[in-house]
Design a protein that fits this description.
This protein is of the alpha/beta class. The chain has helices spanning about 5-15, 90-105, 120-135, 155-165, 175-180, 190-210, 235-250, 275-290, 295-300, 315-325, 335-340, 350-355, 365-370, 375-380, 400; strands at about 45-50, 55-65, 110-115, 145, 165-170, 225-230, 255-260, 330, 380-385. The longest helix is centred in the middle third of the chain and has 24 residues, at about 190-210. The two termini are about 45 Å apart. It comes from Qipengyuania benthica.
Length: about 425
Amino acid sequence: MASQTTLEKLAILADAAKYDASCASSGTAKKDSLGGKGLGSTEGMGICHAYAPDGRCISLLKILLTNHCIFDCHYCINRKSSNVRRARFTPQEVVDLTLAFYRRNYIEGLFLSSGIIKSSNHTMEQIVEVAHILRVEHDFRGYIHLKTIPEADAELVHQAGLYADRVSINVELPTDAGLTRLAPDKNARQIERAMGKVKADLVEAKDARRRFRHAPRFAPAGQSTQMIVGADKASDAEIVGKASRLYDNFGLRRVYYSAFSPIPDASAVLPLSRPPLIREHRLYQSDWLMRFYGYKPAEVMQATDVDGNLPLDIDPKLAWALKFRENFPLDVNRASREQMLRVPGLGVRAVDRIVASRRHRTLRLDDVAKLTVSIAKVRPFICTVDWRPVTLTDRADLRSLLAPRREQLELFAA
């Protein structure tokens, strides 16, 4: 390993970090400018894109400190028994890389995680050292997201929060049974205690800032977590319930979902294939329903099929509306904002525009069409001064009419 160059280490540890969905950005075509044409690349190792609440795209250097690990979690490609190339950065090497990328305007911050080497405390000390050198010795003011280790001493996690903008602790799997079976070195109660301590530190720091102007900040962007979807038999209803409890109990800013991906030399207890990526997307949609649309977890669970999973062909909001058609149609000129947020096809922005517009005039169907992306999806669930769906809302084939059409891609399309 001593003969590995920094570039070789970066290739290994940036690739190993891609399984963490907390700042993932994917789906683009691979392009570069190595041939002398164009400018830029989509294949830069370790560069990921996170999005701020106001929509800004933030480029981060996303790497592991090391992919060596003393744990043997079945679903992890970096587990102790995995046959992968290993590499390890020193804290100073991570600092030098971060500063070099930042000075070239490639990134705006750092996302740092790690396998467990020697012990949880030893690893956490090195992660904290990276952040300390950046903040204290170099006065680095860019964004820092640190993955903390629940098994490490609480004081080390607290120090991480003093330097990082955001900290996160992965709950890994939706159920305790799944965690015990697939990650025998981890303990669900220990993870929850660590998240509870971070929440207490966040509350204490916020209170101190109110009382003392120069009190130290603690993870001002809050804490987040990640769950792997499809590695165990947990249903979407169980995942939604778990996410809701995490939001309520620990004040999380985000719960991220990562679809299980088969790995080389996988354990026999893992599924042979990955779940459909659309399942991950539906879980994110259900997350938005709870966070921004006023749905309760039990209501999202009502949108699931008999097996407890969200339908893949339609979004959770439409699935709920089809199950509870007695709530529709709604008169957009009279219905409350909360009621209209239940209408499939109407987003938060569209609803706010409707509420603002109807103060000045009685809305017609054409007016609503101008305020939303697809009036065809909205029509069965609303009334206007010139439109009433009559029997459309109750049609037996309404689901098939509103479900997105599946198109067969042409192999040799231009």
